[in-house]
Amino acid sequence: MHLLGPTPPAGNPKGAQALRVETIRELERLAALKPMEARVKVFVVDEAEKMTLATPQAFLKTLEEPPAQTVIV
Fold first, then answer.
1. For the segment 21-44, what is each residue's pLDDT rounded down to a tens digit?
2. Could you give the residue ranges of the DSSP H alpha helices within the chain?
3. Which residue, among 40, 2, 42, 1, has the nearest Cα to 23 in the 3D structure?
């Protein structure tokens, strides 16, 4: 199980917390791998309302067609 949530900008640790494109890219990379111990991989996206403007567009295809053996909540 993977828990994803808002983070500050890479160059400013005290900046506004947001769910960033880089986080979604990491989710996509991990989702493409086969599960090692369980039958499925589960990703929980916490505070999705804090996505930056570009993040929903980056997340759309993965959300509509998740890889096999992957659950996104």
1. 999 999 999 999 988 888 999 999
2. 21-31, 55-64
3. 2
